[in-house]
Fold Flagellar basal-body rod modification protein FlgD.
Amino acid sequence: MTISKVQQTTNQGGVAPKANNKDLGKDAFLQLLTTQLRYQDPLRPMEDKDFIAQLAQFSSLEQMQNLNLNVNLLRGTELLGKTVKAKLTDEKGQERVISGLVTAAQKVDGQVKLTVNDQVVSIEQILEVSL
């Protein structure tokens, strides 16, 4: 049997979205699962136990992410009333360090944000904590 032509194809429909922090989140996990179901071999479909195991992993992933968010919020509330230094980056990529008292902690779009000197900073931007 002779193959006359090989052609490269790219299928963007089955590609999971890239996560910003190099970790797969629940949306990427669900995308991978649905892609796997869409392109499974019809002669060897996924077994029920495999599908249930993956759904359990998905549920565990979501619960761990929620737990992580709540732990980070707890960390943020522990910083209330303390002086912190935080590194901020502006739109031009210029970095500067601010120092001030933490006056508020809140959840915003799945992240913990602190208010320092009337500026909102992410808890990941905190460099130093002092009394």
